[in-house]
Design goal:
heterodimer; A: 293 residues; alpha+beta; 8 helices; 9 strands; B: 801 residues; four-stranded antiparallel beta sheet; 26 helices; 18 strands; DALR_anticod-bd (chain B); ligase (chain B); nucleotide-binding (chain B); glycine-tRNA ligase activity (chain B)
């Protein structure tokens, strides 16, 4: 930052703490990351399963996301196979959701008199969750910093009522706030730890594993087993346990994709299989709570 | 007369939906008002990201009072009739009016205050609004019946004159207050009246008129680029989109690192436009400059410095990605990329793209080796230069508009040139789809072909091959450049013929409005390619080739895959001269019937599909030619001859026919022909649809001598007009046939024209239906000969008028 009088921008962890503070003040339950590998914060049961049904639910949490195909061995300044999303879910969606969101940006130091914030059409769809919604990607000076969605369906079920979902790309937002061009240069804290210190080696090793080493036979096996276990849980009428297995299958599929062993033709079939598992888990969840009618 | 203002304020409306939303708002309102008999003198609509507005000027303050009369029974009618009428109208006897002994019910509908009508129209319009995608939101969405809007609806301003039209929709009450710009003026703005709307919002940093916003962006962007010594690359779509994304547009010029200019300009422009909605600029030399124009939605306190910096960074990251893809792609030879095409499914029944490439490569080579595409194709008669002089690869520089060969046979090409062209065509075809697996095309599918061309050129492929890879998707639509470079023509034509033949082979044909594989476009491409380049192509041969290959491929992959492949490998082993031992022989014997069954099924299916495919081409040709002003019945007349699958020849015949029927001779011959045909039809002597050999181009001599019963000497004395017609036919038949064989269709028409006078004279002087059966038979045969002679050129029965 060129202006010496400007306040020091928030570190990565300080930004998270601010967001926690802000959303806590707005009535959200502040949860911790789910302890399973997943491709997006939406997969967290606090979003997927809690979005279903009539009960009000307001929660916020950080979720580590794993997207094996996005790995770049630590060599790309913008792409990571492991990164963080900040996820807020508010059900029913409050009438002032946009204002609340803009308030959160202000809380982490975005000055809306010098930056250009825009809501650009981006309809969200998750083929693996049987879910879709309408909303925007929020641009800050041309950079997408948040996905803003009004869920319309989850697991194939109409939302009654609709939940609003905010998904912040934390690294992008931090790069923007700290004005750095390389993700690994982010100040993780104010005590000299950089994002690279924490994650660079991780990205190198995991990219290698994702793309080159992961044993595909075992992955195929893991996929089959997760799918079978999901069915097992469904039979036992344990929707949450079943949903966890669907998450596992989904991530295993992502790893297989990164290993390049799933043909285009098979791809749709695998996605369909994961969707069936996730939808079945959602259906079981609806039924268990007596919302299925 | 009073003006009405409606503003429907919501969260951000997608830019692409705004124009249609304005139209729908005006249309739906006009409909609602018309029901009440109201019309506005003027209708104005506005759209911004956050509001959709309508102003109706010059509305009357009330609707007209209406008096309706319903005729009832006569006053003298029996009481039951009266009772029935009273029940129907809900009136009493003393409310009826009697006139001339008849009872009338008079229903006086008083005029209604216009605001009352508006208060009903507003919710009706909102609920009926046809957004392409709409959503529910908030607590009310606990019911799926809750209001749907494009994004959450937040406010309604409804003013008739200066008075609020009170309505409530989904819990939102109308009023006079809206809000200004999200950041410049988030507070309430009270609107006094429709006349006040635009200016009141302008004061609150909102330009409501989308055209004004577009003009601000266009002017501002042009000025900013001019100041930097650059010119803006205009893009109307992008302009409208940016106007739809802003309420207070501020175009800002930024620069990016010139190093990124090593990435092809199309990639930079596409990245900037699609991902970031930026305009790009050219420098004084017309080259893409390292500059962009983004459109902010605020007047930033720092003049936009931070916004430009932020946008620059985002673009840099995008370009870094693009350059990464480009550099990575460049390192992998296209030949190697092409080996990965067997992973991409082209169509479930047609196998992978690799399978398609294999078929296309063979066909492209065949098109050259058969002499259909020559080294001189499309280049006039001068440059038989073995498949194209090297060309600069910049698409803008590529001279794609060579004149087609102007009549006469193309120059005789040397065999070396043909061999070279065939090699180049096959090579280009084998590489043409390889860019589908590159990172860049994965990111930007619309760059297919173009990127392959860049990579091929960079990897040292011959310029003709690289250009063919680049342009082989052309022509993409009507008005698109039609390739004329022989290598490109070969690959483009082979690709399209394969697509059509293969999809028809598996029964995937366009129906009605459904054409998911764009086969109509492909057919139009084939037509344009053959016409522009004057290609002499018999469609049947290539179509049989590709559909056979596609169908056998399908069957091989299908249920019989194991049997069929076993059979194939044994067959090919045998072909290769492998020793066949006893066990193998047994297998062969067991499999042979199955193979025959498969092949038999395939061949009848292929024949069936082939007819459908040719019909499809005929239809496309009709559509294309109708647009060019050619009569469809003339096309029918030529197509009805059957056996004609050479589109260029067919069209030449149609054109000659069109010219001929416009002449007196033509019109009269047609009349004479129809008279003859009618007589024959009555006699049950229908035309044996002659498989016309006319136009067999390679066998110059053409026609077998026709068996001509009426000329083979008559058993009675011919009347003079009869004899004259025989003589005329004796002369005209070979002349027409000869002309057709030479593809001189005007000459053929001229030969037919000589029949006109003798036919007219014959009908004037000779009685066909003579009492003498021999005479009658001979004269009918003569008429049949006339008909058949005409049919040698076209089926005149199809011609209207």
């Amino acid at each position: 930052m060129s202006d010496p009088s400007a306040p020091r921008p928030l570190s990565f962890q300080a930004m998270i703490l601010r967001l926690h503070q802000y959303w806590s003040e707005h009535g959200c339950a502040i949860l911790q990351p789910y302890d399973m590998e997943m491709g997006a914060g939406t997969f967290h049961p606090a979003t997927t399963l809690r979005a279903l049904g009539p009960d009000a639910w307001n929660a916020a949490y950080v979720q580590p996301c794993r997207r094996p195909t996005d790995g770049r061995y630590g060599e790309n300044p913008n792409r990571l196979q492991h990164y963080y999303q900040y996820q807020v879910i508010l059900k029913p969606s409050p009438p002032n959701l946009q204002e609340l969101y803009l308030g959160s940006l202000a809380a982490i130091g975005v000055d809306m008199r010098v930056h250009d914030i825009r809501f650009v059409e981006d309809d969200w769809e998750s083929p693996t969750l049987g879910a879709w919604g309408l909303g925007w990607e929020v641009w800050c000076d041309g950079m997408e910093v948040t996905q803003f969605t009004y869920f319309q369906q989850m697991g194939g079920f109409d939302m009654k009522p609709v939940a609003g979902e905010l998904t912040y790309g934390l690294e992008r937002l931090a790069m923007y706030i700290q004005n750095v061009d390389n993700v690994y240069d982010l100040a993780f804290n104010d005590a000299g730890v950089s994002y690279g210190d924490v994650f660079l080696e991780n990205e190198r090793q995991m990219s290698t594993w994702n793309f080159e080493v992961a044993d595909t036979d075992r992955l195929f096996d893991a996929f089959r087993k997760a799918a079978a276990e999901c069915e097992n849980c469904l039979e036992a009428k344990l929707p949450i346990a079943a949903y966890e297995q669907a998450i596992k299958a989904s991530h295993t599929f992502n790893l297989l994709q990164a290993r390049g062993v799933i043909s285009v033709a098979e791809r749709q079939a695998y996605i369909g299989r994961v969707r069936d598992l996730a939808k079945a888990a959602c259906a079981a969840h609806m039924e268990k709570n007596g919302w299925a009618a | 007369m009073t003006d009405f203002l409606l503003e429907l304020r919501s969260e951000e409306i997608p830019a692409r939906m705004q124009p249609k939303a304005r139209e729908d708002l005006a249309r739906l309102f006009a409909g609602e008002l018309a029901k009440a008999g109201l019309t506005a003198a003027e209708t104005v609509t506005y759209a911004t990201p956050r509001r959709l507005a309508l102003i109706l000027r010059g509305l009357p303050d009330a609707t007209q009072a209406v008096s309706e009369e319903v005729k009832g029974p006569k006053a003298s009618a029996p009481p039951q009739a009266l009772e029935g009428f009273l029940r129907k109208t809900g009136l009493t006897r003393d409310q009826l009016v009697e006139r001339d002994g008849v009872l009338f019910a008079v229903n006086e509908r008083p005029g209604r205050a216009t605001p009352e009508v508006l208060a009903e129209a507003i919710p009706a319009v909102i609920r009926a609004f046809p957004w392409p995608k709409s959503m529910r939101w908030g607590a009310a969405s606990a019911s799926t019946e809750s209001l749907r809007w494009v994004r959450p609806l937040q406010g309604i301003v409804a003013l008739f004159g200066e008075a609020v039209v009170p309505v409530e929709v989904a819990g939102i009450a109308s009023g006079a207050a809206t809000v200004g710009h999200r950041f410049h003026h988030p507070d309430a703005v009270t609107i006094r009246s429709a006349a006040d709307y635009v200016e009141a919002l302008r004061d609150a940093h909102v330009i409501v008129d989308q055209n004004e916003r577009a003009a601000i962006i266009a002017t501002g962007a042009a000025m900013a680029t001019a100041k930097a010594g650059l010119t803006l690359v205009r893009d109307e779509g992008l302009l409208a989109e940016n106007a739809g994304l802003t309420e207070w547009p501020v175009p800002l010029l930024g620069r990016f690192d010139p190093d990124y200019l090593s990435v092809p300009p199309e990639v930079i422009q596409l990245t900037a436009r699609v991902n970031q909605k930026y305009f790009v600029c050219r420098d004084a030399d017309g080259k893409l400059a390292n500059a962009f124009v983004c459109t902010a939605n605020i007047d930033a306190d720092d003049g936009g410095a931070k916004i430009v910096e932020g946008n620059r960074k985002v673009l840099a990251a995008r370009l870094a990605d693009a350059r990464f893809f480009y550099d990575t792609d460049l390192k992998v030879p296209l030949e190697e990329q092409a080996t990965k095409l067997d992973r991409i499914v082209f169509h479930e029944k047609l196998g992978t793209v690799a399978d398609k490439v294999e078929r296309v490569a063979k066909l492209a080579r065949w098109l050259v080796e058969e002499g259909i595409i020559l080294p001189g194709t499309g280049r006039g008669t001068s440059a038989a230069g073995g498949g194209g002089a090297p060309q600069a690869l910049l698409p803008a520089d590529a001279p794609l508009h060579h004149q087609p060969a102007a009549g006469g046979p193309p120059p005789r090409a040397g065999e070396d040139n043909v061999a070279l062209l065939a090699d180049q065509a096959e090579r280009a075809a084998r590489l043409a789809k390889a860019d589908l697996v590159t990172g860049m095309v994965g990111e930007f599918p619309e760059l297919q072909g173009l990127m392959g061309g860049y990579y091929a050129a960079a990897q040292g492929e011959d310029a003709a091959v690289a250009n063919a890879i680049r342009d082989h998707y052309k022509p993409v639509g009507q008005g698109d450049d039609v390739p004329t470079d022989p290598v490109t023509v070969a690959v483009s034509l082979a690709d399209k013929l394969d697509t059509i033949g293969a999809f028809f082979a598996i029964g995937e044909r366009p129906t009605g409005s459904k054409d998911p594989f764009a086969l109509r476009r492909a057919a139009l491409g084939v037509l344009s390619l053959t016409q522009t380049n004057g290609l002499r192509l018999s469609l049947i041969d290539p179509l049989v080739q590709v559909s056979t290959a596609a169908l056998i491929g399908f069957m091989t992959r299908g249920a019989q895959s194991s049997v069929a492949s076993a059979a194939r490998s044994i067959v090919s082993m045998r072909e290769a001269g492998a020793k066949v031992d006893g066990a193998t022989r047994e297998i062969i014997d067991a499999i042979r019937p199955m193979v025959q069954e498969v092949t038999k099924g395939a061949s009848s299916q292929i024949a069936e599909n082939l007819i459908l495919t040719l019909d499809f081409f005929a239809d496309r040709l009709k559509v294309q030619q109708r647009e060019a002003g050619v009569r469809h019945d003339l096309i029918d007349a030529v197509f009805a001859l059957g056996g004609e699958d050479d589109l260029v020849r067919l069209l030449a015949r149609v054109h000659a026919l069109q010219a001929f029927v416009a002449t007196d001779d033509g019109a009269n011959l047609l009349a004479g022909y129809k008279r003859a045909a009618n007589i024959l039809k009555k006699e049950g002597m229908t035309a044996d649809v002659t498989p016309v050999k006319a136009g067999v181009s390679d066998e110059g001599a053409g026609q077998e001598p026709r068996e001509a019963p009426a000329s083979a000497g008559a058993t009675y004395d011919r009347e003079p007009a009869e004899a004259a017609l025989v003589a005329a036919l004796d002369a005209a038949e070979p002349a027409a046939a000869d002309a057709v064989a030479r593809e001189d269709f005007a000459g053929a028409m001229a030969a037919l024209a000589t029949l006109r006078a003798p036919i007219d004279a014959f009908f004037d002087a000779v009685t066909v239906n003579d009492a003498d059966p021999a005479k009658r038979a001979a004269r009918l045969a003569l008429l049949a000969r006339v008909r058949d002679a005409v049919h040698g050129v076209a089926d005149f029965s199809r011609i209207e008028g």
